[in-house]
Amino acid sequence: MRPDEEILKTADFNVDGNIITLVYYTNLPDHPENIRLSEIFLAKFLETLKQNQAQKFRLFVDLTLLGNVGTMPSKSRQNYAKMSKEKQLERLAVAGGNMALRTIASFIMKLSGLEKKYQWFNTKEEALAWLKS
Prior knowledge:
Blueprint: H1 4-7, E1 11-16, E2 19-24, H2 31-51, E3 57-63, H3 74-84, E4 89-96, H4 99-112, E5 118-121, H5 124-132
Parallel strand pairs: 2-3, 3-4, 4-5
Antiparallel strand pairs: 1-2
Helix pairs in contact: 2-3
């Protein structure tokens, strides 16, 4: 497995006001690296919430640059699901991806009871407009 610095070149974690953005540039088919990236992003997400306990956030996951990707490891899905369950998270928008990922994400959101604060969009612009509304 590559070092964290190399894994982090495949994606970005940004905070702009109340919007946290996860942008994925490259698919990580290597399961340990995929899991490690999800762990890093979960830690950054939780730290952001901890540092801003009175603030509500909206999460944008941008998969538009990935194209057609496969499924992600179960541990990665669990880490991302933890983000969606945080009380400080008001909304979650995902843009891009393929039908397999949409199906998995929708299933997780339904099981978590979070489908009302979650939407999947074809474009980044649609997702951001919904998050800002």
